[in-house]
Structure formats: C-alpha cells, structure tokens
Amino acid sequence: MVSPELEFEAAVVEEKGGPFRIRTVGVSGPRPDEVVVRVVATGVCQTDAHSRNQEYPVPLPVILGHEGAGIVESVGAAVRDVVPGDHVGLTFPSCGHCRSCRAGAPANCEHGFGLSFGAARLDGSNAYAGSGVHGHFFGQSSFARYAIANERNTVRLPDDLPLTLAGPLGCGMQTGAGAVINSLHVGAGESIAVFGTGAVGLAAVMAAKAVGATTIAAVDVNDARLALAEELGATHLINGKKENTGERLRKIRPGGFGYVLEITALPAMLALAVEVLAPMGVAALIGGAPAGTKAPIDMNSLLNGGRTVRGIAQGDSRPQTFIPALAELYRSGRFPFDRLVRAYDFAEINQAFEDAARGDVIKPVLVMGE
Fold first, then answer.
1. What are the pLDDT digits (tens) for 107-140?
2. Which positions fall inside the Enoyl reductase (ER) domain (predicted)?
3. Strand runs (DSSP E) across the chain, as ranges?
4. Annotated domain spans of the chain
C-alpha cells in the first residue's frame, strides 16, 4: 500500500496559456472506489491544449492529462475490477448513477463535463489540495508520475500491449473509432467523409476501413496527414486549401454521403457536412469548439431528406469492453494506431505541445521513464 501522502512529480499549468512546469505534489491515499496508478506513459490531446488556454473553464493551477496508461499501485477497499500489478488504461470519468450511466451510456453522463473539467471529485473534494493545485482532470490528471482514478475509468489491458502505446486508446482513438463503430454503426459498402485527419480523424478512417466502408473521403489542409490517411484506408483525399471541398465531395458522391464526421470544430465545416449528406444521412460533430460557437446550418437541408445532425462524445464508448476490443483490433493489424504516435520524455512536455500545435506530430505520447 502507498502511504497516505504520496509525493511525485507532475506537470502543472499555473496560468492561462502558460508553460508546463514540473513540480513535486502530494496527494492523500485512495478512497474506497479509487485506484492509484503509476503512470508509464500518457497521450497528449487537443483537449489538454484547449484547457491550458482556458477555452474550457478549468481551474488553475492544474495538472492536466487524460490519456494515461500504467500499472496499478494500490486500490481502495471497494475496488473489485483491478488489483495491484494490473496493466491499465485510464479513460473518461462518469458518475455511474445518472440516467445515462444506468442506461449504459457513460460517455453522456449528466455529470461528465464537471467530472472532466471541474478538476475535482464529484463531491467537490480535491486530493491534491494540500499542494495548492487542482487535480482529477478527466478523473486522472495523468501528466504526472502517479494518477488517482476511479474504478469506473480504469480499464484492464492485455499484458502484451505496450503501455507506452496504450494511453491514446482512452480518448482519441476510442472517440474516432467509436464514432464509426458504436455511434453511427457504419457498415460494409457504405460511405463516410471525415473532416480533419488528426488523431481522432485517422482513428475514424482506420475504423471505417475495418468495418468495410468502401468510400472513405478524408479532408484536411495538411498533405502529409492526408497521405497517411490514404495509407490507413482513405479512398479519396481532399486538401481544402487547394480545392473546393464541397465541389469535390459532390463529385465523389453525387447522391451524398451516408455519414460525415466533423472534427475541425469550424462552423462552416459543420454546415458543409449537412450539405453533402445523402437523404437520411447523418452528420456527427466530434470536434470541440469554444463555448458559444454557432454553425449556420440550412434548416431545409435537414427537413428535406430527413438528414440528421448529432453530437458524439468519446465515441459512445463503454470503455471496459470497447478499449480491449480496440486493443484486439490493433493486435490483429486492423487498427495500426501506433503509426500516429511519437514518444517524448516527460520532461519534453512543452516541446510535445509545440510540435503538435505546428502539426509536426499527430499523437505525442509522454513516457515517464524512471
């Protein structure tokens, strides 16, 4: 068992848009339903950048990070699903008690936003308070050598899945792949357009290929990412800087696409997603825009043809089963998400964010080392 006051290094953001600073923090021991995880590696996600820049209302100073993977160090008295020594991935939090959770839809938990961005437990407490920082970001704050998670957002992983790779399964990979598999139920022979080929978009492309979609159009402004999208399964590539995206999509599918995933969070792109849908098609918003952002959707395009617009959080994943399923897809060679990953030492966290912001890397992963 760990001591009641565990001390370790964490990357702390102290002011809006400021750098990550490595400092030592202390936490109280786990509550009965909590798990202490020694973090081996953790992915860097765009949501971390949005939160650092205060585009989401996260209290400061804070320890971010929400794609952690590691080894269980200790567990609370009520934990049954994992034991010390287990290899685990950390994912989004949920309360387990609201209507959505009871219906098997934890990604739409009524308390999910607060548990993710409130930097506190559901009761408002903070295990990191004694160090003067906020923790519990997405129920884990994994930009640190240890994380305190809840049993609900701790997922046992196969021992042969590298922990230095596994972290992104808990957010970016399950979001893109889950949108295709769980939310939209894209089937063999169907068509899908993916707006944005970052980590989430490329996960969607890989999943669309895995389920047998035959028209997979990838849209971006980065030729290198589009080239990778083609290698991973995209059948058509569109660089929005070099050609008219709408015109090209209509040439590819004159009758419209069955599904469009909008990941850029640009209002004009969500409006376009609706316009290139086939009758009865579905446009799904995944990209997170700043609060208050509105999109100019033509209401008649929805009314005439029965088109649908919906939001998708975390790929409608049930993490305890879906993340192991993605791991199995990876091991079978059908979901090669390792091709998106570049490893960085934990101390290089600021460089990882800079590289990601420039588009030089798709999915940075911070490796803790010793």
1. 999 999 999 999 999 999 999 999 999 999 999 9
2. 17-366
3. 6-13, 20-27, 34-43, 62-63, 68-75, 87-90, 146-150, 154-156, 191-195, 215-220, 236-239, 257-262, 277-285, 308-311, 341-345, 363-367
4. 6-170+336-367, 176-312
214 token code pair: 């035959």
Tell me which residue has tokens 């021991």. Answer: 29
The full length of the chain comes to 370
Task: Quote the CA–CA distance of 282 and 246 in Å, as a whole number.
Answer: 16
**What distances in angstroms separate CA 146 from CA 30, 65, 112, one per listed residue?**
12, 11, 22
Tens of pLDDT, residues 150-197:
999 999 999 999 999 999 999 999 999 999 999 999 999 999 999 999
DSSP H/E element including 131: none
DSSP 66-96: --EEEEEEEE-TT--S--TT-EEEE-----S
Per-residue pLDDT of 284-332, as tens digits, reads 999 888 878 899 999 999 999 999 999 999 999 999 999 999 999 999 9
Q: Are strands 236-239 and 154-156 parallel, antiparallel or unpaired?
A: unpaired
Which fold, 6-170+336-367? Answer: Quinone Oxidoreductase; Chain A, domain 1 (3.90.180)
Task: Calculate what percentage of the chain has a pLDDT beyond 90.
Answer: 94
- In the CATH hierarchy, which fold is given to the domain comprising 176-312? Rossmann fold (3.40.50)
Which residues make Cβ contacts (< 8 Å) with residue 340, sequence separation at least 6? Answer: 168, 199, 202, 203, 228, 362, 363
Judged by phi (left if over 0) then psi (alpha if -120 to 50, else beta), residue 60 lies in beta
